[in-house]
Amino acid sequence: MKRVTGKKKPNLLKREGVEEVDWKDSALLRKFVSDRGKIRSRRVTGLTPRQQREVARAIKNAREMALLPYGNR
Question: Is 39 in a helix, a strand, or coil?
C-alpha cells in the first residue's frame, strides 16, 4: 500500500520573514488561532516544531496580557 503524500504546507513565518516570534504582534498571532480560539496544530500551520512551540508560548502570553481572547463566545 502506498502512502499518500500531500503537498508541503507553506511556512508562514518564513514567508513573512519573521525571525523571532513576539507576543506583542497580535496580528501575526491571530493567523495561528482558529475562529473558535484554539491554537492551530503544526499539521495545519506548516511550522517546524521549534517555531510551533514559540508561537504557542507567544499566544499564551498575549492571552494573559489581554491582546488575544481565550475563546470565542
Answer: strand
CB 37 within 8 A of CB 2: no
Distance CA 57, CA 73 (A): 22
What 3-state class would DSSP assign to 30?
helix
Q: What domains are there in the chain, each with its CATH number?
A: 13-64 (4.10.640.10)
How does pLDDT run across 8-46, given as a tens digit for each residue? 788 889 888 988 999 999 999 999 999 999 999 999 999
Question: Is the alpha carbon torsion for 37, 42, 3, 10 positive or negative?
Answer: positive
